[in-house]
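User: Hand in any protein.

Assistant:
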Amino acid sequence: MGKIAKRFRLGASLLSLLLPSLINHNAIAADNSDKILSRPVKGRDITVSLPAEKTVRITFDRYSAMIDSRRFLIWSGEFDPFRLPSPSLWQDIFEKMKAIGFNTVTIQLDWAYHSPAPGVYDFNGIRDIDRLLSMAKVAGLYVVVRIGPYADADLSRGGFPGWLTRQKVDARSDDPVYLAAVDEWLTRVNAIISRHQYDGDKGNVILYQVEDRLGDPSPVKQRYMAHLYAKARHDGITLPIFHNETGPVGDWLSVARSGEDVASLIDLHGFSINTTRFCDTQNQPLREAAPPDLGYYNLDNSASFLKRPATSLITIEDGSADYWGSNEQYNCLANSNDERHEMLILGNNLINGLTNQTLRMVYGGINWGWLGQSGRITSFDYGAPIDEARNLRPKADGLKRLGQFISTFSDITKMMPGSVIVPTSSHIRVLHNVNPDTNSHLFFITHKPANSLHDSKFTFSVALPDGTYTLPEEGNLELNGHDSKYLIAGFNLGRNRLVYSTSQFQTMITQGEHDIALFNGRQGEAGEIVLRYETKPRVTVIEGDARYF
């Protein structure tokens, strides 16, 4: 790679480079240290250990999830099948999710939907979980399953069956009557899930959630969680088990930080944050909140888990259910939580090392019958990327670009903070990560604060593997209004070297003897791509213009 194209400049929205033959970009193999594994557990009337010879296929370290020791970024969206009671349409949702860049679907199950009476369960037709999971596999999606028993999910009674409310039980506790009812549900649903859990070439379920935002880690609640964990293991569930908390430093993480034994409770920390940009009563968007730093760049050193962000699964609640008496806010929610909003939230999480994310919702659907929580209207559109009628909203385009970037830029699965970057504008923040194995660089650029609506022009200097550069060497970078950018440097595009780009890298594919790399940028903004290459690439401008320097 002796030649270098100094300042290959892009004034285009989309541009592809035809490059010589490709080096195979496989996922980076992970080391075997510092993994979180499933452990022996004890619950009420159940004691179980995983067999010594059983391989734990899904593990985590401080950087990412791993499937069979291969690094993997969980990029998931949520879909509630009971809000689309038509199995023939499930495949449509899964294929659209795959097409807009997701590699995983998070599926919430509703106990009440399957059990109209004590001891009576229905898993046929529109309630066929076995068929549902098989369809997700056909579409090429892994699955994160949320089994309850309490689900929340804007459901009536939080997903508890109606007959349970007529029993004198202390729900969400170690009450024997309540646990007996719970075990009825878990025995049946675990039998289905266990057949679909990932095991090499078989199955596609990779994570298993118990309960939702339980709170109060009292001894009673701990015994309850221990029972759910042990019941899953007893029923043959070998996947990592997690619980979804309210906020990053929740009650159950506090138990773990206190030094108490939580081996019988959870394998993986999970939590939700609400990033929705809500609308007022006149359907006007409220002011955007700056996204929180929940990982590498969080300044609270007491929250030690934030320095190991990939040991968490974060649920991003980005949208909302509408309510009776509102001004039909779904269109406003869809527009205010648009592509730029979602890129700011998701990109900020990625640069903070949160490599396991699920977006709630990708498809909302409809509250049929008595499904919905009291006060909610029938529509559960949520302002999601796939609307109630299963049409793609414009913000699905941004998710596709980001999803393609994540799947191609495999170095993102092992990143750590790099040198501090000081841009020429005090209104700009540049966060900088580096892959310790390949020395590739990732930059995430926002306003300072990130919810600012200023227009800013700036440059920044950085030492890269190929030398020290000012980005860009000609002109300026721009952030205009509600905006952010993710840029990469020091990354091999086949036999060619991407020194840096101020246009966003989207994806790369192989076609015959050539590699084709795709970059994108804002309409009217210039970009700069610097390459080292053996053979001069052929440039195709899809929109805009481009020229060599």
DSSP finds nine helices and 27 strands in the chain. The first strand starts at residue 3 and ends at 19. The mean pLDDT is 87. Residues 3-25+415-547 form a domain with the beta-galactosidase, domain 2 fold (CATH 2.102.20.10).
